[in-house]
Design goal:
- By secondary structure, the protein is mainly β.
- Among the domains are: 118 residues, Acid Proteases (Cathepsin D, subunit A, domain 1); 82 residues, Deoxyuridine triphosphatase (dUTPase) (Deoxyuridine 5'-Triphosphate Nucleotidohydrolase, Chain A, Distorted Sandwich).
- Helices cover 3% and strands 38% of the residues.
- It contains two helices and 19 strands.
- The protein has a seven-stranded antiparallel sheet, with no helix packed on it. Strands 1-2-7-3-6-5 form a six-stranded mixed barrel.
- Strand 8 and strand 9 form a beta hairpin.
- The protein is elongated.
- It starts with 48 loop residues before the first strand and ends in a 41-residue tail after the last strand.
- The relative contact order is 0.17.
Length: 296
């Protein structure tokens, strides 16, 4: 790697090494685990995704040089074969002062092309992606990230560098349709059943179809759990007359946000035990006309 011309290090400014390997980087003297928070994604300004297989289950992983540890979402762990789960509750504080709820750890097999690696990952209930590979995996496997070339390299069993391209995250973007015709009385709200092309999924983003705003029909932006292609959404009629929407009317879009916040984590427990469960709901001033309180 010495023959490569590196970009200026974002820590010390020199160009004879990568930011990931900087001697002066916080935590570089204590085994690579940050002793304090560092700026996430120091090599690139966007999340790095690669295709991997976790215990032989294909998925896309975030590779983050700003995280001291690797983390897997509990919901994704439930979909793969695994054993020897160790229960161990604690909280990891993130760079934006929110908390990750860690319930244990597990050893995982991570395959990239023909290369097999292993990592002991923390299991979280509120991670924003299926799996995140942190510095524990990056450093132990001599992984180097090249943001300008949109790739990373990892040596195989013969010490030959294998190039792994970055990939765009899979983005779910499907219409949400009414299952049946509904009639909304004046100044009322109603939970309605919707259907979409997604079979089962958790924490998908629902965004209202803007054309209904002109009719004073409002819906909160919210997170949905899809079960057998169905979910419930709150509709609010802010008009002084009843309104009817026919079966299969498109009322919004269901998607998974591709712009993630990358967490820089430490192993230090925090007294702040709040979980990322404050789902911001967007509304407009028209809601003030309602005689009822909207509750999801």
């Amino acid at each position: 790697l010495s023959q490569h011309q590196f970009n200026d290090c974002k820590v010390c400014g020199r160009n004879n090494h990568r930011t990931l390997d900087c001697y002066y980087k916080p935590g570089s003297h204590d085994g690579g685990v940050p002793s304090k928070f560092i700026k996430p994604s120091t090599i690139t300004s966007f999340p790095v995704y690669i295709k991997i297989r976790v215990n032989d289950q294909p998925t896309e992983a975030i590779v983050d040089t700003g995280s001291a540890i690797s983390i897997i979402h509990l919901n994704f762990l439930k979909t793969i074969h695994h054993k020897n789960f160790i229960y161990k509750n604690h909280t990891c504080q993130t760079a934006n002062s929110t908390s990750l709820n860690i319930i244990g750890q597990i050893k995982l097999e991570i395959k990239i092309k023909s290369i097999t690696t292993y990592v002991v990952a923390c299991v979280a209930t509120n991670l924003i992606t299926s799996i995140l590979l942190g510095n524990d995996w990056i450093n132990s496997n001599h992984v180097h990230l090249y943001g300008d070339q949109k790739k990373l390299t990892i040596p195989d069993q013969h010490d030959q560098l294998i190039s792994i391209p970055y990939v765009e995250p899979t983005c779910i973007n499907y219409p949400a349709l009414l299952i049946r015709q509904i009639t909304l009385p004046p100044y009322s709200q109603q939970l309605v059943d919707i259907i979409c092309q997604i079979n089962n999924a958790h924490n998908l983003i629902f965004e209202p179809y803007e054309r209904h705003i002109s009719k004073f029909i409002f819906m909160p932006h919210t997170l949905l759990n899809i079960n057998k292609n169905q979910a419930k959404v709150l509709l609010i009629n802010a008009q002084n007359r009843q309104q009817t929407l026919s079966k299969n009317t498109r009322i919004g879009t269901i998607s998974r946000d591709a712009t993630y916040t990358i967490y820089a984590t430490t192993q230090i427990p925090t007294k702040n035990n709040s979980i990322l469960n404050e789902h911001h709901q967007t509304s407009t001033r028209h809601y003030n006309k309602l005689k009822f309180r909207a509750v999801l």
